Amino acid sequence: MRAIVIGAGIGGIAAAIRASQLGYEVTVFESSNGPGGKLSSFEQDGYRFDRGPSLFTMPQYVDELFELCGENPKDHFHYKREEVVCRYFWDDNDRLVAYADPELFSKEAAAVFDVDADLVLKALKASEKKYIYSGRTFLEKPLHKLNTWLSKDVLAALSRLTQMDLNDTMHEVNKRQLQHPKLVQLFDRFATYNGSNPYQAPGILTVIPTFEHLIGTFLPKRGMFDITASLVGLAERQGVRFQFNKPVANVQHSGDQVTAVELENGETHKADLLINNSDVHFFYQNLIKDVKLPKRTLAQERSTSAVIFYWGVRGDFDELGLHNIFFANDYKAEFEALQSGSIADDFTVYVNVTSKYIEGEAPAGTENWFVMVNAPYDRGQDWQEEIKRIREHTISKLSKVMSKDLRSAIETERTWTPPGIQEDTGSYLGALYGTSSNSKFAAFFRHRNESKQFKNLFFVGGSVHPGGGVPLALLSAKIAADLIPRPA
Ligand SMILES: Cc1cc2nc3c(=O)[nH]c(=O)nc-3n(C[C@H](O)[C@H](O)[C@H](O)COP(=O)(O)OP(=O)(O)OC[C@H]3O[C@@H](n4cnc5c(N)ncnc54)[C@H](O)[C@@H]3O)c2cc1C
């Protein structure tokens, strides 16, 4: 039986592996000239850059794909746990090293901000509790199945609902738990993990620090793109065929079955099973006709997007490691601006430098900087003007905090904007994480992993349940595979 996957994003690759394990003959059609979508990579003037994700959590969801296929992940995919999760910088020269080890992190926070030694530890414990009692349960199961709601762990989670801070915002919970404004800001920033706003997102999202500090963050030995590359290798060893530069233009259907895909080049390919990894919004808008639209799902607010500068930088900025955050002075104003479709005068800048840790990523004496500023999803803003302003402010903010001249150190650069993200990956309005999680009902309005109308159509990737981010896109494929009928 033939399965077709639309899109070779990380969710599509994982779904292709799982469908081949179920016994399907799988072909993946991808618009671009290579795999990975947002999780791809490029080279420029001797530098290598990961294009999108830089923070890798839950590596077990990659490992388990190798195990599913009877392979040892350690033979193919290597990664190391990071000892420092993030370095935080403020304009007034306050700095904090967030160690992965919760005790060390808590001690460091106490030393820098003169707060109780176990304040951060307590917040992390509360976060872990939310993960154990609810987060995990809801992330790993389809939400529209009665079985899910009758399972023992979900019933147990429901009985603890009042402890999940659903009626407070993330910011309110963090303010209650962390007291010091800079620690509150630091914990609020976890909302950006899924493109949300801490002043609106429900308190249950204070579960997110668990991923960084208790489960851990990891660096793949050959950079983030290695997640994509090693899984493509695994898929190909299972017989999955990847066809690049082959955009799907239309999905044919009859009765309760999808029957074939038509490519932009005019080819038609029959399918017994179809897995869509393209953004679900575009799927309904462009790829399938004469179907009932899931209007409420499609009307959900998009997550934030980003403006990214890829800079090749000469010199040694030794304070910078992996994951550095230069905070805005007024975080609330930053999110209010994002919400209304703009970027504030002062904003938070994220910098990630992998060339210090991975050989061959940058020419001698230089570093490869991934510099990201949170941006609203595309609403037709004048991005060329915005880029000029953001670039200037980013350079002066970083130069000032590090007391170094960054402007003259930049040797090569490339920029990615929300419209560019949409154009290159098919992500609706350039949202990084599909829909936002700014309401406590957001999880329930996300598109499910199977079609209501067609028995052989399934959905994976960051725009559907359980949401955006690499681990969740991998989980979407796992949930979908449990729903896919076994071939006769
Ligand atoms: C700048 C940036 C930073 C991020 N940072 C992080 C991070 O640090 N950690 C993290 O976990 N996540 C991060 N994310 C989010 C993460 O990258 C995504 O959630 C995840 O990669 C989405 O995977 P996906 O399976 O939805 O596929 P996508 O990457 O969205 O890929 C979809 C694929 O489908 C293809 N496609 C679309 N339409 C068609 C068609 N008609 N025919 C054929 N192919 C089609 C596209 O070309 C694309 O290759 C970041 C994203 C970005 C952009």
List the helices and strands and how they pair.
Elements: E1 2-6, H1 10-22, E2 25-29, E3 41-44, E4 47-50, H2 60-68, E5 79-81, E6 84-89, E7 95-99, H3 102-113, H4 119-139, H5 146-150, H6 152-159, H7 170-178, H8 181-188, H9 209-215, E8 218-220, H10 225-237, E9 241-243, E10 248-254, E11 257-263, E12 268-270, E13 273-276, H11 280-287, H12 295-298, E14 305-314, E15 324-326, H13 331-339, E16 349-353, E17 366-375, H14 383-402, E18 410-416, H15 418-425, H16 442-445, E19 457-459, H17 470-483
Parallel strand pairs: 1-2, 1-13, 2-9, 6-15, 13-19
Antiparallel strand pairs: 3-4, 5-8, 6-7, 10-11, 11-12, 14-17, 14-18, 15-16, 16-17
Helix pairs in contact: 1-10, 1-17, 3-4, 4-6, 4-9, 7-8
Residues 6-12, 29-32, 37-39, 52-55, 247-248, 277-278, 287, 306, 308, 372, 421, 425-427, 432-433, 461-462, 468-470, 473 line the site of flavin-adenine dinucleotide.
Q: What are the key terms here?
A:
20% strand, 488 residues, five-stranded parallel beta sheet, FAD/NAD(P)-binding domain, 3 domains, alpha/beta, binds flavin-adenine dinucleotide, 17 helices, seven-stranded mixed beta sheet
